[in-house]
Amino acid sequence: MDVDERPLLELTHRFADELPELCMPWQGAEVPDPQVVAVDEALAKELGLDPDDLRTPHAAQVLVGMTPLPGSQPVAMGYAGHQFGGYSPRLGDGRALLLGELHDVDGQLLDLHLKGSGRTPFARGGDGKAAIGPMLREFVISTAMHALGIPTTRSLAVTTTGEAVHREDGPLPGAVLARVASSHLRVGTFQYAAAMQDPALLQRLVDVAIARHHPSAAEAEVPALALFEAVLDAQAALIARWMQVGFIHGVMNTDNTTISGETIDYGPCAFLDAFDPATVFSSIDHGGRYAFGNQPSIVQWNLARLAEALLPLIDDDQDTAVGLATDLLQQFPARFGTAWRSGMRAKLGLATEEDGDGELIDDLLRTMHEQGSDHTQLFRALSSVVRGDRAPVLDQLRDRTALDAWLDRYAGRIAIDARDVESVDAAAAAMDRANPVYVPRNHLVEEALAAATSGDLEPFRRLVDVIRQPYDVRPGLGRYALPAPVEFGEGYQTFCGT
Ligand code: AMP
Ligand code: MG
After folding, report:
1. Cβ-count burial 414-429 (b if 16+ within 10 Å, e if not)
2. Ligand 1 pocket residue status of 127, Cβ below 6 Å
3. At what angle do helices 318-330 and 295-314 cross, to 10 degrees?
4. Which helix (H) or strand (E) holds 46?
5. Is the CB of 267 under 6 A from ligand 1?
6. CA-CA distance, 494 to 300, in Å (whole number)?
7. Is 47 buried (19+), middle (13-18) or exposed (0-12) by CB count in 10 A?
8. Which residues are catalytically annotated?
9. Which of 38, 321, 361, 411 could potentially form a cystine with 315 if both were Cys, beta carbons 3.0 to 4.6 Å apart?
10. Closest ligand 1 atom to 165 CA
11. DSSP sequence for 400-424
12. Which of 22, 77, 87, 95 for a ligand 1 pocket mutation test, highest count of atoms within 8 Å of Cβ?
């Protein structure tokens, strides 16, 4: 066998076998000239691959879906979803394919999935394709999220197709993203299955979700309820993590809310510069439904849709089922609050828990909002305060006295946990591992994608290199740590990546 024809990977087709009602066998479209332009080498190694094997002509064909992998039975997955609150009974993978599953070197089962691989029976009016900009956008932001320690689907590779895709701005280079996820089960998958009114099918879906993501739920008295609770906790933890780095997902429809608790579907997402809970970047989010500060209540709303889908498996008596699910759902704000405060304590360098911590956090955020402080820079500057230098924080305020009283309170609070020089140093060092220096700021992402769209991938590669180590100050990278220059404008908008 020619070296280049060695199979890259063997896949399984468990989902296609276990839940055939929820997917359709399908193939990727033929494209004229596939070329791999981005590879996550670290992820490739985690999958047991040699990154160079992902850069061959054979790999390019595999990564656009033209050449099947051994064992692969690609499918387009079906799902429903509430989009901006309105229900669509049939969304599904309109331009995506689940190629199959594989194990990483640690034995974890993962999905390998393509996005932009051609029209499927779920495509509705869409062309089934993707432009290079939005696929590289998902690559860079998902890579950043992973480096920040936030659960996320990963981007293995982006492969250009050699074909133009037509969007509002005219023709753009086409590309396919190869995505790896602990699964592609979403709230919308459960909505889709529930609508089929087949309890045995719904039960199989619950069993698959429990086995893949929340195995302890299998032992519970009511596994479907335990699954619901596990998803609720995973999502509470996820949204808290998003907000601790200033991330706005932008399109938190129920089809974009995973059962695993991983971030999925990087469309109009963006990071805050100046802290303001009302921030919305997405051009299609006119009502601000998915604004930064609404994210916890929106995910709670999405979880209510999951609970509705699960009701028949929670109890035969509908009122009892509703009561059990509602009890858990009402605990969401408290569980979110616990996750939020615990992460915020880490950002503030607080090792223990004290009664006034919630207020201390809220008061800081309120002042940051009033002062237009840069979210990333201000939190990073807090470790300097702990080391005895307030200046970096004061530099983030319009009125340099605005935080004086708060800083005194904070100094008192820190003193409870860090009593000697060693513990002060340890607290400050821990804070520098909780507060990133580099996040993929909007202007940097736009600059990288614009260059890539015109054929220059260097700015994209540099940005990926920067965000892979978000916590370590590195020489020469000063501009990546700064907010957008004023010329970038305040009215920045993101578009639902197609
Ligand atoms: P998303 O906004 O990426 O979560 O996608 C929402 C739905 O629209 C999913 O069912 C996608 O498969 C579908 N979709 C988005 N873009 C396209 C496209 N270009 N062609 C076909 N389907 C698409
Ligand atoms: Mg989606």
Report:
1. beebbeeeeebeebbe
2. yes
3. 150
4. helix 41-46
5. yes
6. 24
7. buried
8. 255
9. 321
10. 19
11. TTTTHHHHHHHHHHHHHH--SHHHH
12. 95
**Spans of all domains in the chain:** 3-181, 350-432
pTM > 0.70: yes
C-beta of 256 in contact with ligand 1 (< 6 A): yes
Ligand (nearest to CA of 76): 1
Average pLDDT of each block of 10 consecutive residues along the chain (498 residues)?
66 98 98 98 97 96 96 97 97 98 97 98 97 98 98 98 94 98 98 98 98 98 98 98 98 98 97 96 94 98 98 98 98 98 97 94 98 98 97 98 98 89 93 98 97 97 98 98 85 73
CB-ligand 1 contact for 138 (6 Å cutoff): no
Ligand 1 atom, smallest distance to 496 CA: 2
Q: Specify whether the CB–CB gap between 7 and 64 falls below 8 A.
A: no
CB-facing half-sphere around the CA of 317: CA atoms within 13 A: 4
The total number of residues shown for the chain amounts to: 498
How far apart are the CA of 413 and the centre of ligand 1, in A? 49
- Tell whether ligand 1 has an atom less than 6 A from the beta carbon of residue 128: yes
